[in-house]
Amino acid sequence: MTREPVRKRRPSPGPEAGKVARKPTRKGPRKAMSLADVRGFIEALARANPEPRSELDYTDPYTLLVSVVLSAQATDVSVNRATRTLFAEASSPAAVVRLGVEGVGRHIRSIGLWQGKARNVVELSRLLLERHGGEVPADRAALEALPGVGRKTASVVLNVAFGEPTMAVDTHIFRLGNRTGIAPGKTPRAVEDALVRRLPPEMLRDAHHWLILHGRYVCKARRPECWSCVAVAWCHYPNKADAPP
After folding, report:
1. Residues 66 and 121: beta-carbon distance below 8 Å
2. Is pTM, for the whole model, over 0.85?
3. What is the C-alpha separation between 159 and 78, in angstroms, rounded?
4. What's the topology of domain 35-52+166-234?
5. Domain chopping of the chain, boundaries
């Protein structure tokens, strides 16, 4: 007796049957700004803020380095509050090493990830004494060899402390680069490379501050304040927000 082949039962159609799958909507610009628009955009920011500066409080390359290390996943305001007492007690590599992890931690408990940051600050201070005579090196490789110092932190220190035309891409600049079309990229490094390549060379150093401050206070993550943007005429963002009533 031959058996009939077993037929697989098809699953019953669900509630979504018959619906056409939608492609995800594309956020941000469809193409990069022209170089002429890039210049217009950054010049508008420059006119609005001719002398930009870091919002971190520091007195020398070492206190800047420590402040930038502490600022990861923390606001500049919270870092300044913590370093005010920390630097009053210890503002040099030798003094921080003497203070130790517990001593540093006592000042920075209000900052996120403070335990790891306290260890990094003490260890990088020890290595500065051991390798660089207590001075902060003006060299990217040497900076990135220190605990807690990545590419972004090294770029900030090289830019602010040593006047180099580096571009530190944080969440604000990454968002702004893609949203406006000034330098689209899938990774922070791609945005960094695009900015270095596309921005006017003579404006590159200050552009680091202009873009961070613009992303922090105007081109915000949830709702960009397009109505108050001085560079809106050059921006390629298609969903510009209207002023609130």
Report:
1. yes
2. no
3. 22
4. Endonuclease Iii, domain 2 (1.10.1670)
5. 35-52+166-234, 61-160
CA 228 to chain centre: 22
Q: What is the distance between the alpha carbons of residues 38 and 85, in angstroms, rounded to a whole number?
A: 41
Find out whether 188 and 174 touch, Cβ atoms under 8 Å: yes
Q: How many CB atoms lie within 10 A of CB 9?
A: 6
Q: Check whether 128 has a pLDDT greater than 90.
A: yes
Outline where DSSP puts E strands in 157-205: none
Separation of first and last alpha carbons in the chain = 81
Catalytic (active-site) positions: 152, 170
Confidence of residue 30 (pLDDT cuts 50, 70, 90): low
- Cβ atoms 224, 185 nearer than 8 A: no
The rounded distance, in Å, linking the Cα atoms of 25 and 23 is 6
CATH of domain 61-160: 1.10.340.30
Q: Hey, CA dihedral for 64, 67, 72, 78, is it positive or negative?
A: negative
